[in-house]
C-alpha cells in the first residue's frame, strides 16, 4: 500500500503510539488528522508538528463520533482510518464481581470495541469511494493469550480481533477496495503502562513495524513479542499462558 499522499485519521493521537504514528506518517508524506480527549495534548502535538490537523473527540462517545465524521467530511475526507485509541483500567482494587469491575469492563468495551465499530460504520462509505483505502484496528498480544489481571481488557481486544477478521472477509466477499489491517502490539512503553517493569518496546519500533506491514499489504501485523507469542501459542499453549501469566501475579490477584 502506498502511504504517500494519503489522508489518515488517527484516533488517540495526542500522545504515545498515536502521536508517534502521526510523526512517521507525516515524514512519509501523508496528510494526518489526530483526535483525542485531551485538548492540551492535541495543542502540544500541533506545536510539535504544525502540519497536523487536530480534532478533540472521545473515541467512546457516540455524539463525538458523529461530529468527528462531519468535520472530517468538511476537510475532504480520509483514505485511512487508524483506530488506535484504547483504554485499560488498572487491575488494582478492582475485585471480580464488584461494581467497579463492571464499570471498568464497560468502559474498556465502549472504547476498545464498540467505539471502533461505530467509527468504521460511519466512515465505510467514504473509504469505499477512495481508489485505495484502509482500516487499521489495533488489537493486542492479549488477544492471542489473555492476562489474568487484565481479563476484561483482554476480552475487549479479543472481540476486536474476531470482528476485524470478519470485517475483512465481509468486504472481500463484496469486492470492496477497503483493506482491513490488524495491528497486534506487545507491551509498548507508553503512559498507560508506565508503572510496569515488564519488557517493553518503544512506540517508534511499533510504528515502524506497522508501516512496513502496511506497505507490504500484510493484513495481520505482529510486532516484537507478539510474533513469538503467536507461534508459541500454536504449539505450546500451556507454556505460552504461563509466559503471559507468571506465578508472581498470584499476589496481585489476592
From TrEMBL:
Source organism superkingdom: Bacteria
SUPFAM superfamilies: NAD(P)-binding Rossmann-fold domains (SSF51735)
One Pfam family it belongs to: adh_short
Keywords: Oxidoreductase
GO MF annotations in UniProt: oxidoreductase activity
Family the entry assigns: Belongs to the short-chain dehydrogenases/reductases (SDR) family.
PANTHER family hit by this protein: 5-KETO-D-GLUCONATE 5-REDUCTASE (PTHR43669), ALCOHOL DEHYDROGENASE, PUTATIVE (AFU_ORTHOLOGUE AFUA_3G03445)-RELATED (PTHR43669:SF3)
Name used for this protein in its record: Putative oxidoreductase
Source organism phylogeny: Bacteria, Pseudomonadati, Bacteroidota, Sphingobacteriia, Sphingobacteriales
Amino acid at each position: 500500500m502506498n502511504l504517500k499522499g494519503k489522508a489518515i485519521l488517527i484516533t488517540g493521537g495526542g500522545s504515545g503510539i498515536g502521536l508517534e504514528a502521526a510523526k512517521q506518517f507525516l515524514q512519509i508524506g501523508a496528510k494526518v488528522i489526530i483526535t483525542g480527549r485531551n485538548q492540551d495534548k492535541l495543542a502540544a502535538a500541533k506545536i510539535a508538528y504544525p502540519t497536523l490537523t487536530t480534532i478533540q473527540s472521545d473515541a467512546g462517545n457516540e455524539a463525538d463520533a458523529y461530529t468527528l465524521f462531519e468535520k472530517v467530511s468538511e476537510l475532504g475526507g480520509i483514505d485511512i482510518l487508524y483506530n488506535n485509541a484504547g483504554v485499560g483500567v488498572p487491575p488494582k482494587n478492582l475485585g471480580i464481581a464488584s461494581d467497579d469491575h463492571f464499570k471498568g469492563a464497560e468502559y474498556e468495551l465502549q472504547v476498545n470495541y464498540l467505539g471502533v465499530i461505530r467509527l468504521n460504520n460511519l466512515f465505510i462509505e467514504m473509504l469505499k469511494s477512495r481508489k485505495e483505502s484502509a482500516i487499521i484496528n489495533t488489537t493486542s498480544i492479549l488477544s492471542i493469550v489473555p492476562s489474568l489481571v487484565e481479563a476484561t481488557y483482554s476480552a475487549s481486544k479479543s472481540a476486536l480481533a474476531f470482528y476485524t477478521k470478519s470485517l475483512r472477509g465481509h468486504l472481500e466477499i463484496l469486492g470492496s477496495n477497503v483493506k482491513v489491517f490488524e495491528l497486534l502490539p506487545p507491551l509498548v512503553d507508553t503512559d498507560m503502562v508506565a508503572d510496569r517493569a515488564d519488557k517493553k518496546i518503544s512506540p517508534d519500533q511499533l510504528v515502524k513495524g506497522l508501516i512496513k506491514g502496511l506497505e507490504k499489504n500484510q493484513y495481520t501485523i505482529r510486532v516484537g513479542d507478539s510474533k513469538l507469542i503467536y507461534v508459541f501459542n500454536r504449539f505450546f499453549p500451556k507454556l505460552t499462558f504461563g509466559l503471559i501469566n507468571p506465578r508472581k501475579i498470584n499476589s496481585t490477584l489476592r
